[in-house]
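Exercise 7b. Backbone tokens:
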């Protein structure tokens, strides 16, 4: 396995990580922004008001996007495991 293969595999892994994590991160970011604007407008400074909607949104995204995330990760792991013989030999 030469340096080019190592960098290519690392790049694929980082791209997959971003692709799988993006739906959850973007959703939690948007929910946090909306809750922050609501808190600023109403001057309510309650810590659980920002925490609970983020958790609910994260669970909802996981319920909807979870199968796709799992299938994507399983496909990547399968391709990595099948590429071991060509990397060694």
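Sequence design result:
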């Amino acid at each position: 396995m030469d340096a080019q293969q190592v960098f290519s595999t690392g790049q694929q892994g980082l791209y997959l990580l971003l692709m799988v994590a993006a739906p959850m991160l973007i959703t939690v970011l948007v929910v946090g922004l909306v809750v922050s604007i609501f808190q600023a407008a109403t001057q309510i400074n309650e810590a659980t008001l920002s925490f609970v909607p983020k958790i609910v949104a994260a669970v909802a995204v996981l319920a909807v996007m979870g199968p796709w995330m799992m299938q994507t990760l399983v496909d990547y792991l399968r391709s990595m495991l099948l590429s071991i013989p060509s990397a060694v030999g």
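Instructor comment: The chain is about 90% helix and 0% strand. The mean pLDDT is 92.
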